[in-house]
Amino acid sequence: MMMALLRRLGQTVFVLFGISALVFLVFFATPGADPTARIAGRNASPQTMEKVRQEYGFDRPLPVQYATMMKKLFITQDLASYVDRGELVVPEIARAAPVTVSLVCGAALIWVVLSIAMGTIAAAMKGTWVDRGLMMLGLIGISMPVFWLGQVANLITQSRYHDTWLFSWVPGLGYVPLTENPWGWFKALVIPWIVLAVMFIGIYSRVLRADLVALSGEDFMRTARAKGLSPTRILLRHGLRTSMVTFVSLFGLDFAQLVGGGALLTEVVFGLPGVGRLTYQALTNLDLPLIMATVMYSAVFVVLANAVVDILYLFLDPRVRDAR
Amino acid sequence: MPAETAPPMAAPLLDVRDLCVSFPSRGRMIPIVEHVSFTLGERDILGLVGESGSGKSVTAMALMGLIDSPGVQITGSALFRGQELVGLPQKQLRRLRGREIAMIFQDPMTAFTPVYTIGWQIDEQIRAHERLSRKQARARTVELLAEMGVPDPARTADRYPHQLSGGLRQRAMIAMALSCNPSLLIADEPTTALDVTVQAQILELIRSLRSTYGSSVLLITHDMGVVAETCDTTLVLYSGRVAETGPTDALFAHPGHPYTAALLASIPPLDGPRPHRLPAIAGAPPPPLERPAGCAFAPRCAYVHDTCLPAPPPPLVPTGYHPLTAQPDEASAHTSAAGTSPPPVQFAACVLPAEGTPLPARLTHSELSTKPNFDTPDQALPPPTSFSSGEAHQ
């Protein structure tokens, strides 16, 4: 078990190295484009160009350039954005990350709880109007684009019905840090959470229902029924528990890509200064250091989340435990 | 069934009468099991034999109330200790399942939930039916596993299904089935997924259950060898109908239905010269919807003639053979006292015995190999060649 964990960690480090090298090559070693000019920004003075060239070692071989970049990213953390007048990139991400994590964690909690409830109820009442109704709701949730839903939510809660008793509590767009004002944090985020969760509730409840229905034909479910267990117990302890293996792997991927910046649209619509919005800005300004940093950040999260999912797997599925 | 007389015992453990199961498909009802009747006494082992699709498993599932496909129609009666199982509400069935009637399944790998330990799953069944603490339940589990011949039962209980071999898994399955001391054990092809040596051990275990646990067993199999080794009584199903039923020795010695005879003839002989080809039954069983109006076996039968074809299918009639050891009258005289099996009478759903031209007793292997019995389609009956050589082999 310990060995398995260590090996998994080793793999994680290796994958991270690969990603960093790849991103570096894409942005800084593309033939025919001088990274110096790109980092320095449009209409930069020759002095700035020279300074950038010195700082990043663009006059030296590629491995050295890569090492310099990694050093600036992870060790000295003094990677600065020239486009944004010397703003340090790493602290910028460190400021944005808690916003994204707050947004995604809250949404994840909502979508996990609701989709498990919906999927299980639908599977238990397979073929009834409850099942059909829930699955229809899920489909509607999947079909609504998150930015549109966010705008509609804003329209309703911020302007049209803001003065009614129902939505007068909704604060203006923006983020309130948890450490400053927990209640304010919750109020600022509850609507973004729901908006972000809607699509995932739809997907997850449908996947879970399909999985549970497929499982109900399995031999072990028949055994469970032959044992004289109650239908609820069969569904939850045998069906749902087994479905969790699929559910967790799906969840790990979605969660990671959201924390890594995938919640961009929600962040932009609700004015939340998260990593997604930061990436979005970096891309529009072609701010190379920031792009490099956000991509690395997102890669770290995806890879780490995958490692966590794999470790969770060890606990969820005894068959995986022995296969390693 | 008209020919079958009332059971002589006060109340058999399980009395199935006219059980029919039909599944709806494209607006029509497809009869999978038609008018199956049998009785199973206390401590009896009844073998339900037939090929795939003959309705063996469906019969068992119907008894357990485990068929829940929408629109399924189950008629007839199945009295378990006088309680009607057909149409019993799920809630009451649940109380019987696992406690009074337990079931073991064909593939022990897929029959256990993969994410829980064997012990957990056995504990679960015990605790579903009896008020026991976790500890007490586990103690019983370990004890059961030990009795089923599982080495190091306490540790095995903590292992997951995939960590055990097929034989051990099936032993654990049997331990789970027996955990609440059921009076009836339904074993649905318990040895099919196992290799032959393990198969023998598991059959031995099942046979021993009646003395140690006093359980009756309904053994479902397609393997005549398993039946011969294990069962007191045999019921041969063909295409959802009973083809023949009787005490195993009698049925093996004097098959009354051409289907049974052909099945037995297709077993490779253990002695005598090696046959050039084993006799096979030509064709395949009819799909349920295209079942002939008369005898379902008629299209493949070597003895088919005009009386076989019109509806209704031939009823079960006594074949006329009685094992030499127990004459029926004598047997019924002392069964009521001893409480063992009903009088050994053999019935076949075939017109031949009624027409006074029953099948001959089985040929010995050497004769079979030289003179196959089923390659003369139009001949009504070969003369009874070796009448006395009816030993149940294997």
Q: What does the model show?
A:
Chain A: Keywords: Cell membrane, Membrane, Transmembrane, Transmembrane helix, Transport. Chain A: Its main location: membrane. Chain A: This is Oligopeptide transporter permease OppB. Chain A: It comes from Acetobacter malorum DSM 14337. Chain A: It is a multi-pass membrane protein. The complex is a heterodimer of chains A (324) and B (394). Chain A folds into two domains: 2-90, no CATH class; 96-323, Orthogonal Bundle (MetI-like fold). Chain A has helices at residues 2-28, 35-40, 46-56, 62-75, 89-124, 129-143, 146-160, 182-215, 219-226, 231-262, 264-269, 275-285, 288-316, 318-323, and strands at 80-81, 87-88. Chain A is mainly α and 324 residues long. Chain A has a two-stranded antiparallel ribbon with strand order 1-2. The mean pLDDT of chain A is 86. Chain A has 14 helices and two strands; from the N terminus they run H-H-H-H-E-E-H-H-H-H-H-H-H-H-H-H. In chain A, helix 5 crosses helix 8, helix 10 (231-262) runs parallel beside helix 12 and helix 10 runs antiparallel to helix 13. With 394 residues, chain B is of the alpha/beta class. Chain B has two domains: 10-231, P-loop containing nucleotide triphosphate hydrolases (Rossmann fold); 245-394, no CATH class. Chain B contains 14 helices and twelve strands. Chain B has an eight-stranded mixed β-sheet, sandwiched between helices. A four-stranded antiparallel β-sheet of chain B has the order 2-1-4-5, with helices on one face. In chain B, helix 4 (118-129) runs parallel beside helix 7 and helix 7 runs parallel beside helix 8. The longest helix of chain B has 17 residues, at 196-212. The model of chain B is unreliable at 1-9, 323-342 and 364-394 (pLDDT under 50). Chain A binds chain B through residues 127, 218-220, 222-231, 233, 237-238, 241-242, 245, 316-319, 322, and chain B through 64, 66, 70, 90, 94-99, 102-103, 105, 107, 110-117, 124-125, 128-129, 160, 162-163, 176.
